[in-house]
Design a protein that fits this description.
Elements: E1 2-6, H1 15-28, E2 34-38, H2 44-47, H3 52-60, H4 66-70, E3 75-79, E4 83-87, E5 98-99, E6 105-107, H5 127-133, E7 141-145, H6 152-159, E8 163-168, H7 172-192, E9 197-203, H8 212-222, H9 239-245, H10 257-273
Parallel strand pairs: 1-7, 1-8, 2-6, 2-7, 8-9
Antiparallel strand pairs: 3-4, 5-6
């Protein structure tokens, strides 16, 4: 089982788009057993798979989320309807991934991560890694969508991962931020002892009419730190990608042969880079 985190400290670079579509193509085009884990407190990946009413129904029926993996404490909650309730920590064996309609499984995210106290060194940062070890014979790939911040949640994703993949929008701000990101990863790896490797950089939201793509390609090909990391294909700027995600539609569902062909080649390169 290979575990890969999607990371970038800058929001709006298509990180979730890459995560959910990577899982979708791996499962449906490459016949891989895939688990998608939503570690971002904004739970955008989860919203790509469940409509709002479906998510509410899932939670009301006691469905497990990423919070149950991280939270190993007894909690007291208050509800106007149910009053005070005591919640015991959930055993890993009880937390079953949800089967999506896309052919892969997922662990839903939750806004409740914001309320969960998780200080560095508490041990909770290792719980995701420990949980995934209980599933190592069930999946070929685990794709983790991490938050766009250098938080303990991102660290937890990296601790659990064999590789990390960086989606980057070709603009000057993103180019500047990627070196800072690498510095933070190096610092955290020294502090926490994880050793996951970079499996490349994917350019996203690419406007073929702009010179920014060429500038980005030049930057990555001449920068010694990133040389050889850029994927051959990029994700073109398409308004219907973001629009479709709100309706649980993915790249495979879009009537755009170029977009689908490019992403299929990205997935094949991803597989080669993680062999």
């Amino acid at each position: 089982m290979k575990t890969v985190s999607l990371i970038n400290m800058k929001g709006g670079v298509g990180k979730t788009t890459v995560a959910v579509n990577l899982a979708d193509f791996l499962a449906n085009r490459e016949s891989q057993r895939v688990l998608l884990v939503d570690v971002d407190p904004q739970f955008n990946a989860t919203q790509c798979l469940l409509q709002g009413d479906q998510y509410v129904d899932y939670i009301e029926k006691g469905g497990y989320t990423i919070v149950d993996i991280f939270d190993n404490s007894t909690r007291i909650t208050n509800s106007i309807v149910d009053g005070t309730a005591r919640h015991e920590p959930v055993k890993f064996s009880e937390i079953k991934p949800v089967k999506s309609s896309r052919g892969f499984d997922f662990i839903p995210g939750s806004l409740q991560l914001f309320k969960l106290e998780m200080s560095a060194g508490s041990g909770r940062e290792n719980r995701l890694s420990h949980y995934l070890k209980t599933l190592e014979n069930e999946y070929d790939y685990v794709i983790i969508d991490s938050p766009p911040t250098p938080s303990v949640w991102m660290v937890s994703a990296l601790i659990a991962s064999d590789y990390y993949l960086i989606p980057v929008k070709p603009d000057p701000i993103s180019m500047t931020g990627i070196d800072l990101l690498q510095g933070i990863i190096r610092e955290r790896s020294e502090n926490y002892g994880f050793r996951c490797k970079c499996c490349g950089i994917i350019l996203t939201i690419v406007d073929t009419r702009s010179t920014l793509r060429k500038d980005a390609e030049t930057f990555f090909s001449t920068n010694s730190r990133w040389k050889g990391q850029l994927y051959a294909k990029s994700i073109l700027k398409r308004a219907n990608i973001a629009k479709g995600q709100l309706n649980n539609q993915f790249i495979r569902d879009i009537d755009d042969s170029t977009l689908k062909a490019d992403f299929s080649l990205i997935v094949k390169e991803f597989i080669r880079r993680t062999e």
